[in-house]
Amino acid sequence: QVQLVESGGGLVQAGGSLRLSCAASVSILGIDFMRWYRQPPGNERELLAARTRMGSRAYADSVKGRFTISRDNATNTVYLQMNSLKPEDSAVYYCNAIKARYYYWGQGTQVTVSS
User: What percent of the chain has pLDDT over 70?
Assistant: First the structure.
């Protein structure tokens, strides 16, 4: 079992930055993939960023160059640094972990970007 707790969401003006955190209940070194998704109201969940256990990273075109996924092995935390935020980035953001082919989700954190 992996428990994930997101934090760091909030209200920010367009052009601003936020850093989301996802704290895992187990060592993230044993998690195959850590990913960030978002889900705007009335829309499907969108994959934004992924990081493998070996450190490879990938991003959706919609956030490439603005968002960065990183991790702190010592605290078992994965981050999503979000810069140059736009109103269309407003959504609930979710952390996801894949370990031994099981999927785990956090409860989500709301990000609202005002114009």
Answer: 100
- Give me the pLDDT at residue 9, please: 97
Question: Residue 59 forms beta bridges with which residues?
Answer: 49
Round to whole Å and give the CA distance between 62 and 109. Answer: 19
Alpha-carbon distance of 95 to 49, in angstroms, equals: 10
Cα 34 off chain centre by = 8
Reference 45, options 112, 114, 113, 108; nearest CA is 108
Radius of gyration of the chain (CA): 13
Distances from the Cα of 54 to the Cαs of 29, 32, 50, 77, 100, in angstroms? 9, 8, 12, 15, 15
Q: What share of the chain is helix, strand, coil (3-state, %, to 5)?
A: 5, 55, 40
Which tokens belong to 47?
């994959």
Digit-coded pLDDT (tens) for 39-94: 999 999 999 999 999 999 999 999 999 999 999 999 999 999 999 999 999 999 99
